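User: Can you recover a sequence for this backbone? Please restate the input before giving your answer.

Assistant: Of course. Working from this structure:
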């Protein structure tokens, strides 16, 4: 059983929704955020990256930043830009990008389900990133960014969501950055909301697709509140966190590509010889970038030429859900043994490029600050769930989800 319930969202009025909605805090730096909001005082980046309203020299982890976030969030509500719904609701959130649609249900998940493993994860988190969001959530007394969850499709939920969309007008309908269409419906029918909650009760588990740090931080704030309120009953809002749950068959993962600064001390000929021990290496015809078309194949860009790499039999364990991932195959057979990069999380010689930027970005990086690039075949949602089911974690930078869930459309108050 997975708990997923309705809640009273604080959200923008229809006239301000497009101005408030913003990309997640962690997809841009402070300078980029300042540029993004220079003509928009209502952007939710004023809450999620509140340092943009303070001196440029301030440490982004300074206490003043979290105080400013709280102030800016309160201002959105006190000014009437955002209002809290009077009754608990579920919210339907549909995004359409490049003709592909994904529709999720916005609600609140249980911190107990995360603690017990009913909400499954596939990534490690970093303590410094957690600490930042813990302070942010605690200071704001709210979950400000939704966690991206997925689940194996449930026909009752899908049919109910489709019927509501067909028979009700949306409360928001606008185009955001990148040409993404965002449409939201409010389900304010108490009887239907109870049916949806019971339908989630029949789902064995939920999976974190994206937002591991936000999720871990939200749970830890909930645990802090429990310690501060030893008589808690379990139904207080701090026992839950904001999430959007999507059926897995509607999601798509993009490639997450690699660029590296050097050849690990090898000359090109010696490097190619080492590479050929584990991969079949085929030069590509023409100048077009090579985009892998199947698992266990890779593109490589070196000295203005593209190559196709095919992992040789016996170089990986297909029965192991982690070892059989393409990102693991490349890491274990090339990046670690040839380049000497054993910890891609911290090694400054490697960088990662989301597939949304296209393969031309790999060529650009190799002209500017990198020596070699690898294009990847995308990890599948089935691989993600298999790894989470096995209680294992993916290598870093294995998945890139698009479109990103916008922040500011739904805020979950903890008290």
């Amino acid at each position: 059983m997975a708990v997923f319930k309705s809640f009273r969202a604080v959200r923008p009025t229809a006239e301000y929704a497009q101005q408030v909605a913003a990309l997640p805090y962690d997809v841009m730096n402070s300078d980029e955020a300042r540029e993004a909001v220079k003509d928009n005082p209502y952007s939710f980046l004023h809450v999620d990256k509140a340092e943009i309203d303070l001196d440029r020299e301030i440490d982004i982890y300074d206490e003043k930043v979290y105080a400013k976030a709280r102030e800016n969030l309160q201002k959105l509500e006190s000014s009437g830009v955002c209002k809290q719904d009077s009754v608990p609701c579920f919210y339907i959130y549909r995004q359409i990008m490049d003709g592909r649609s994904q529709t999720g249900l916005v609600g609140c998940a249980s911190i107990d389900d995360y603690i017990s493993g009913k909400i499954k994860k596939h990534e490690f988190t970093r303590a410094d990133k957690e600490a930042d969001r813990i302070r942010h959530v605690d200071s704001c007394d709210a979950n400000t960014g939704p966690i991206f969850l997925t689940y194996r499709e449930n026909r009752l939920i899908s049919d109910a969501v489709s019927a509501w969309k067909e028979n009700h007008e949306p409360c928001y309908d606008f185009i955001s950055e990148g040409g993404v269409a965002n449409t939201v419906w409010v389900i304010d029918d108490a009887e239907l909301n109870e049916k949806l909650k019971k339908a989630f009760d029949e789902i064995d588990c939920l999976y974190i697709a994206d937002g591991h740090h936000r999720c871990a931080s939200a749970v830890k704030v909930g645990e802090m509140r429990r310690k501060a309120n030893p008589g808690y009953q379990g139904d207080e809002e701090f026992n839950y966190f904001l999430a959007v749950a999507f059926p897995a068959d509607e999601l798509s993962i993009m490639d997450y590509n690699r660029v590296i600064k050097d050849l690990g001390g090898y000359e090109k000929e010696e490097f190619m010889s080492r590479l050929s021990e584990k991969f079949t290496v085929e030069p590509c015809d023409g100048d077009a970038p090579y985009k892998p078309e199947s698992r266990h194949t890779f593109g490589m860009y070196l000295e203005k030429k593209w190559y196709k790499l095919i992992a040789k039999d016996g170089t990986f364990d297909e029965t192991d859900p982690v070892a059989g991932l393409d990102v693991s195959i490349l890491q274990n057979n090339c990046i670690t043994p040839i380049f000497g990069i054993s910890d891609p999380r911290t090694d400054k010689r490697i960088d990662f490029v989301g597939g949304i930027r296209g393969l031309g970005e790999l060529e650009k990086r190799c002209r500017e600050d990198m020596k070699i690039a690898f294009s990847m075949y995308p990890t599948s949602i089935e691989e993600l769930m298999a790894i989470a089911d096995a209680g294992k974690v993916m290598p870093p930078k294995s998945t890139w989800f698009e479109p990103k869930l916008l922040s500011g459309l739904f805020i979950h108050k903890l008290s």
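That completes the design. The longest strand covers residues 100-110.
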